[in-house]
Write a structure and sequence with these properties.
The protein is an all-alpha fold. It has two domains: 157 residues, UbiA prenyltransferase (Tetracycline Repressor, domain 2, Orthogonal Bundle); 128 residues, Four Helix Bundle (Hemerythrin (Met), subunit A). The chain is built from 15 helices and no strands. Helix 2 runs parallel beside helix 15, helix 3 runs antiparallel to helix 6 and helix 13 runs antiparallel to helix 14. The protein is flat and about 50 Å long.
Length: 286
Amino acid sequence: MVLKDLVALTKPRIIRLNLFAAFGGFWVASRWQMDWMLLVWVLIGSALTMASACVFNNYWDREMDSKMERTRNRALPTGRVRPSFVLVYGIALGVIGLAVLFALVNPLTGWLGLLGMFVYVVVYTMWLKRSSTWSTSVGGVSGAMPPVIGYCAVTGEVDAGAWLLFALLFLWQPPHFWSLAIRRVEEYRAAGFPVLPVVKGVRRTKVQMIPYIAALLAASVLMYVYDYAGVVFLVLSVAVASVWLLHAVSGLRARDTEKWAKADFMISVNYLLILFLAMIFDTNGA
């Protein structure tokens, strides 16, 4: 059970999703000329760094997690592992992960990994998550780091491609999370998390999702305009983003908010999957 709990503390589902994004960024920058050993180190370093941030998140949220049905059975709220052990575990993962990025990839990826950790652990988890509705948007900075790290592992610089990949993940996260928060609004209220649906209401949250998705559509177009992806990517990304945008707008008239939010969440997950698959298979060659 302890081993299973140690794995769960790293939030493996989040890590898998972000590693997929990191691979996508690496592939876009490589333009079909892959350094496979470098990719391995990028994925290892990124995985350990993200795992560390997630462990710290679990450590700081343990009391609030005990108040939510979705999280009350985690290892820390139930007492299956000691907080002091989890803290050391998170530090160890972070040190190893950042060392891999700094020493075996390049210093830029190490600094980007450190920035992502700082935003997720200090700015998001320790500060904004407990005090402001801005936690979701600002916290998106950390979630947008994986494809940028993958990209910069190859290029060694932050250029237009890095910024566009950052924009795609940064803009995706708030509407993706808010669709979940709408479904769990009472749980977040009981736990004391000031997420947007709790503070501003469900309708305001639905309205605020729309400009993020519209901007996401524009960022997808720019990936094609700046020659980082081909026409297949353009068509697929615009088509799926348009479906998501129309569904988000329909939420303003939806009678069954629970059903609408569940569908919107699934659309957001599939959007990201299709986006990066299209990006990987339709990256323009050198």
